[in-house]
Design a protein that fits this description.
The protein has a single domain, classed as Up-down Bundle (de novo design (two linked rop proteins)), CATH 1.20.1440. Helix 1 runs antiparallel to helix 2, helix 1 runs antiparallel to helix 4 and helix 2 packs antiparallel against helix 3. It has 121 residues and is mainly α. 22% of the residues are buried.
């Protein structure tokens, strides 16, 4: 699962990097849209960091990482709806990467619960 987590985190990182570059190329610095776009890029970094903390396997880290990725998926689809294209490659890249992180976290949470229910030998 570590490889999958790293792969999805790298994909999300590349998406976030593209988002940041696009912010500087297409928006005027200091405008509201520029600031909000940079804030979204910062949130992507936070999602990645939370998911790297989740490598510890601690349930509380997994839950926070899952929540952050789910929030990002919601924001991404909100943006897709705002531009009128949920199948835009930018939307799909972010959604697939964050969705992959959610899947990895849920699998690890379920495995952890299953293992916790087993008696110690």
């Amino acid at each position: 699962m570590k490889i999958a987590r790293y792969a999805f985190a790298i994909l999300l990182g590349l998406s976030g990097l593209g988002h940041s570059v696009g912010t500087f190329l297409f928006y005027t610095p200091g405008t509201d849209v520029f600031v909000w776009s940079l804030a979204a890029s910062a949130f992507v970094v936070a999602v990645i960091i939370f998911n790297l903390f989740a490598l510890s396997g601690r349930p509380e880290h997994l839950i926070v990482a899952t929540g952050a990725a789910l929030v990002w998926i919601g924001l991404v689809f909100g943006f897709g709806q705002a531009i009128g294209n949920l199948l835009d490659p930018r939307i799909l890249m972010h959604a697939v990467a964050a969705g992959g992180l959610v899947a990895v976290n849920v699998i690890e949470l379920v495995r952890g619960q299953r293992n916790a229910a087993l008696p110690a030998v």
